[in-house]
Task: structure prediction
Amino acid sequence: MIINLKQIGKRILKISTLMFLVLLLSISPLGQAVSAKAAEMQPITVSQGKLASEVNKTMSNLLARDVSQQSRIETFTIAITQLGNRQRNIQVYLPPDYDSSEKAYPVFYLYDGEYLFNPPSQGIGDYAVDETLDRLFNEDRLNGLIVVGIEHDRNYSWSEYMPWVNEDMRDWLKASDTAPAEGGEGFPFLDFIVRTLKPEIDLRYRTLTDRENTAIGGFCRMGIIPIIAGIEYPDVFSGVMAMSPAVWLAEGGGRWLSNNQLIQYLNNSQLPENVKFYVDIGTEESSGSRPPVRDQNGDRITYPQAYVEGAQAVTTALLNNGVPETNVYFRIIDGVAGTRDIWAQRLDEVMLWFFGGDGAEADSTLVETLAPESPERDQENQVFLPGIQQNTTPDELNNETPVETSNPRISSKLVIGAGLVLVSFAGGYWLLKKTR
Result:
């Protein structure tokens, strides 16, 4: 790893200047007056253990920044041999300490790779995956994660994300956005991820290759294949994320959800008990004008209804066919549509649930599964499912001595402080001079 001495020197000078100003204030009349006033107030007590923990955590984060650890993105192109050697761009996020350590990392495979990290200027939305992961790393909530972004090829807007053919695509989308029938390449594309892309990633980077450290996820039209991946390859993936899955893409004709190929697949498969499934949906999801599709009662459905009821049907099928409740997280988010910027706000929860360790275990919560504009449902359609609750209650520390804040005086500590300021300033100046 290359250390930028000039940059470190500048930072040391800045810190030294700040320390000098604090020192000057403490011995000034104003500083002594403030200290005297503070001494008259009730002493502030803090836990020694908690104080030490916070100080250590802050210093660790500062030191990490001082050596300029930064995440980075690498890009390469790979052939999809399962689909006629199509070329696909892959973007890879490497965590801040990748170059300064010998660690191996978990891997999260995500669709829509062009927009995960540094989206094109003409594009719409940003998942901000790199910003989210950098923040979780710097907050010590995630110990580094590699994300593999699979870019979208507009020449294959639908087929790679649909395991089955939908003969009625123009019931759902404008003729300018789709052919009359789309789909059927989803399984070969999944085979590409498992048998071609993953081995290449494991060869190029320091990865934890086992299933416990591998997950896959997608959004909207790209949300079906991850669900299939968790069922077809439970020995490869331990976590599945489907945000705003477009379950209507798997419709096989007839009344809404009466012949959905994804639901039939779930009902006819042996589902794994050791894979986590994260599914969420907003109540304002839409992909166009109101479709001319009718439900079991003959009423014309709406797009928000299709999205919510589709996600609900997937979750119900998972639970009814053997996936434990502790491994299913389903949430309906009121008043929210499906956009990259909105999805970005929920990614930290997913990453912590999949890769955050024991501190991110899911707890049970009540999720109401009523879709907007849907017929009345009884209480049996409310399902208890695990959510992600971050318990922030501090640990109770026994038999600790409270520490009282006191009025600072000019003493040997002040002399030591002044000496540290001078030494820091001299060190920073020497580093700057050395790099000229």
